[in-house]
Amino acid sequence: MIRNLTTVRGIKCWGAHIGxxxxxxxxxIIHSEVPASAxxxxxxxxxxxxxxxxxxxxxxxxxxxxIICNAGNANACTGDQGRKGAEAMAQAAAEKLGIAKEDVLVxxxxxxxxxxxxxxxxxxxxxxxxxxxGDAKAGSFAANAxxxxxxxxxxxxxxxxxxxxxxxxxGIAKGxxxxxxxxxxxxxxxxxxxxxxxxxLDKAVKACVDLSFNMITVDGDTxxxxxxxxxxxxxxxxxxxxxxxxxxxxxxxxxxxxxxIHLAKLIISDGEGASKFVxxxxxGAPSDKTARQLxxxxxxxTLVKAAMFGRDPNWGRIICAAGNAGxxxxxxxxxxxxxxxxxxxxxxxxxxxxxxxxNRVKRLxxxxxxxxxxxxxxxEGQGRGWGADLTTDYVMFNSVYxx
Amino acid sequence: MIRNLTTVRGIKCWGAHIGxxxxxxxxxIIHSEVPASAxxxxxxxxxxxxxxxxxxxxxxxxxxxxIICNAGNANACTGDQGRKGAEAMAQAAAEKLGIAKEDVLVxxxxxxxxxxxxxxxxxxxxxxxxxxxGDAKAGSFAANAxxxxxxxxxxxxxxxxxxxxxxxxxGIAKGxxxxxxxxxxxxxxxxxxxxxxxxxLDKAVKACVDLSFNMITVDGDTxxxxxxxxxxxxxxxxxxxxxxxxxxxxxxxxxxxxxxIHLAKLIISDGEGASKFVxxxxxGAPSDKTARQLxxxxxxxTLVKAAMFGRDPNWGRIICAAGNAGxxxxxxxxxxxxxxxxxxxxxxxxxxxxxxxxNRVKRLxxxxxxxxxxxxxxxEGQGRGWGADLTTDYVMFNSVYxx
Lengths: 403, 403
Description:
2 copies of one chain form a homodimer.
Chain A: E1 11-16, E2 27-42, H1 50-58, E3 63-73, H2 79-97, E4 104-111, H3 118-128, H4 136-145, E5 154-162, E6 165-174, E7 187-192, H5 198-211, E8 216-217, E9 227-232, H6 247-269, E10 277-285, H7 288-299, H8 302-309, H9 315-323, E11 335-340, E12 344-349, E13 352-353, H10 358-364, E14 369-375, E15 381-388, H11 392-397
Helix pairs in contact in A: 1-2, 2-3, 5-6, 7-9
């Protein structure tokens, strides 16, 4: 049995081809039969796509019932015309469903700066809303309809028990595409049937995004359209989680984090032109925050990424990138390990190079799943993140495929 | 007549091969016959090479008489052994010249984390100090002896008149090399015979570095060894510049800025694997500082750099990179122009795409010298910077050339 978005109680989906893209599905609908607690995170880019502006307003009351996403046109840098288009998307869905437009979240991904095809999208919404279904197939259609240059759909499902009830949680995501002028938008839509207060869900979502989607990097740019939305409709029937002290909160938060990390890793695995998946870990930091800053600085360094492509046990670049992270960093305390999931080899011991078999490490680095672990030996803070390597294919994708 | 470092009154140089590198010159000496006003800027990386630590101490009094630089070994991440090596460099030069070791500035560039070859470097200094010469040839030898993977030596010379005296200013620089484990160290050494107070020189140097060396990017990483040093020995005989209000200050500061920008541009022209030289300009910003932040964010964006390689008039990536600069940015006010030194084509007008002949712009972008100009239309602030494109060759250089 396939389990995905539609396994979650009360969730119906659809993914349609409405003609914004030439061939592939380009309109996704995720619907909850009852209003759900909802929380979002949005791009930190100062240039914000129109649907993000609309969804920011609609999420204010912590409630939503449907997510509508189109692919093929980002509705970014489109001005007033685009704003009206994003509002029309929400309006069309709300009218069709007989709900308030504030209960509709909208998202877009695709070309920047092209006029938004409002008429096509509105017609697409109206024509497809009746098709929403609880079939697993419909969940996969939605997962496919949010893709741009992704090479595969990204889905996840898990369940756990709370108050003797089975709680379902499922999500879809997209990332990957950097081909002009798509800006590598990252989208994540997660649904659960857990019952949780909106304010608490918001807290959990923000914390989990910081540990997952915010810890992956393909090329360091944040798109105008990035958005993560989580709907929890309460149909599992657990006692509503209403406090951080509730035993269910910690459990749900952990599952949400696991789901987001799963989706984030899938995004990295599908990074454009990427040949390697690298997990970066920093331990022994003065704080978790410092550890995460170091992870981001290292995983986003062009030179480190190129070294990963070249299977080069190049600790100098890692130390140099860490020194550029903008946090106090004393390399003379640092232990550094390189390897894969099976085996890690220490290359630095308290800042001193360790004699290691360079050819053995280079063989290790041939694996497509690599690990880099840096221990600052200064405190209890830790962080993890994930990145791709920088390949000649990446450059070709992002340059030769011109407009 | 060749004019370079040694044209400056009282400056003698040498560049020797002392065996740290296999073939090329690897020890540079720049000497002033009288103590000079001196000022430096150093890397902002938290991991700092040993010679940087020594030079930081020696520059405190605002005086120096000689710069000693070796190539081939960065003396970074070398701990106590390296610190002693950097001190021995200064000590050896001071003894040979009969001056205080505090009047010696030391610098290194090359491999990180390798034990520093103190004995070879000290012997090299002792054997070559007597060879310093005022010949133009000796100036070029010094320019060559600081290179690593650079493909050409970077030199500049200019003169101007002040108080009826001809003032000379000359400089050398290195950049470029990102090949493991060299961290792309940027060095700039400038000498002048102008008379200027040390505190004022320090002010001028910091301001000019912010407008030149700090506005270039190949891959965004700051090396452990970056250093710019300026010596002004006063032998031109002008009235010593002692106040920002002196007419000579503004003039000298402008010439120093011109020299640093000249050297910075040469570094970019020699960027590893780079096929294009791009000048980025931001105008109409709320402040110069904001303009420079935007220039840096745009010129350092992996996606923008790949688009330049691909000759892609991809304004979406430029706007997105600007939105990630961490400064308030309203794209709806922005005018954007792409082109080369001859011709600029407007692609955005107050955030709206301008109909332009895409093929004509793509032809423009085939030039190896490109220009990108963004006008925020919000104030008087402006900034300029320079960058290379991201090429498949860059990735190959930095990955396949493994340890």
